[in-house]
Each structure stands twice: as C-alpha cells, then as structure tokens.
Amino acid sequence: MEDAHVYFPAIQKPYPPLYLGGSSDAAIEVAAKHVEFYLTWGEPPAQVAEKIARVRAAAAAHGRSVRFGIRMHVIVRETSEEAWAAANSLIRHVDTETVKRAHERLDRYDSEGQRRMNALVMQNAPNLEVSPNLWTGIGLLRRGAATALVGDSGTVAERMLEYADLGIETFILSGYPHLEETYKVAELLFPLLPLSHAEATKTFRLPRPEELAGSEFRPKTQAADNAKDCS
User: Fold this and answer.
1) How far apart are CA 129 and CA 69, in angstroms?
2) 218 three-class SS
3) What percent of the chain has pLDDT over 70?
4) What ranges do the domains of the chain cover?
5) Which parts of the chain sit beneath pLDDT 50?
6) Topology of the domain covering 19-230
7) Residue 65 φ then ψ, to 5°
8) What is the DSSP annotation of 158-218?
9) pTM of this prediction?
C-alpha cells in the first residue's frame, strides 16, 4: 500500500506486527519477504511443523526470520466428556445432504489453505478427530478455519503447548457461541497457560468519536488546516 494511514494509534512501535496466512507457494514467498508473523490454520502438528519449516527456509533465503501463529477454534470444558458433547451438539442438526452441498461450493475455491482444510474434513469423515483432540466438525459447513481443539482444560492446554513447541507463539482462538466460550476459555484454560500480561499494562489514548468523520478525515485537524489556508 502507498499513502495508507490508520486513525487509531498502535501500542507497538513503530507499527503493529504484520500477519499473513496462506499455504500456497506464492503466499509463503510474500510472508518470507514482508511480514513478522506467518499464520496457519489449525492443522495436525505434523503438517504445521512442515509448513513452519517451509516458511523458515523461505525467510532465511531473504535474510529474514518470521514468527508464527495459529488460527483455530476451541471447545474446553471441565471434563473431556462435556467438551465432546458440546462439540457434537454444534453439528447435531447437520445432515449428509447439507454437507455435500456445502463442500460442492467449498471445492470451487482456489485457495490452497481451503483445499487443505477440505481434505482434512472429508478424507477423515465420519471420524472427525483428525489428530488427538483436533476436531474438524466445524469444517463440515464453514469455510476458512475449520478445526477446533476439544477437551478438558488440562488436555487443551497440553495440545496448545505442543504447537508452541513447534514454534507457534500466537494463538488466535474463537468458539461458538462467542461470549459463552470466551468466559470458559478465560476461566478454565488461561490459568494453565504461561501467559504474559505486559502489553495490557500499557496506556494510550484513542481518538474520541467526534474526532473522526466518515472514516476520511479528523474534523479538528481539517478545520485547523483550513484556517491556515485562509490566513
């Protein structure tokens, strides 16, 4: 991009880290040249390790290093039985014909990452646990990130640390329904993870709503510039 700008000040200086995801050779080459974090969807650890090796080698060829993140869902409960029941409940109304129609559409995407997700889902059906505690039920219908870590808090934490051992530093997690799952993750999972809260202690001022108009200019700044033009 050229002449791009953002209205909200970044905590990180001089700018926020840039993330990029993509499993194609072209995407990996862009990541190797330009970004701080390469982001993968939640594939089995062996596939993630292979992808990390590819990106590291590509970045090294440009004299750079890249850090790594993963994007996936999480379903965590106090017991494993409760977690798997919650996972299966999400797809309890999904029938074979609906899955077929969904994947007829998903197979049209030219995304390499989507192709890999589709393969994980369909090649392992009806066994949707493609790796210990890695569940592809969400991918029966959803495009994009289609896997979830499922289990009790100790097990899910252990699986996350396995990805961390591969080189994953950032976990971008979500769940359904969003708010309820956020509380469960915070209460059950976070206490078991080596989290750092240093960033949360930093303070900065966001622009007030009246300082922005139409996402195009800051009225107060624009008025000051107009006054200078008239003087």
Assistant:
1) 22
2) coil
3) 85
4) 19-230
5) 222-223, 230-231
6) TIM Barrel (3.20.20)
7) -130, 150
8) HHHHHHHHHTEEEEEEE-SSHHHHHHHIIIIIGGGS----TGGG----PPPGGG-BTTTB-
9) 0.80
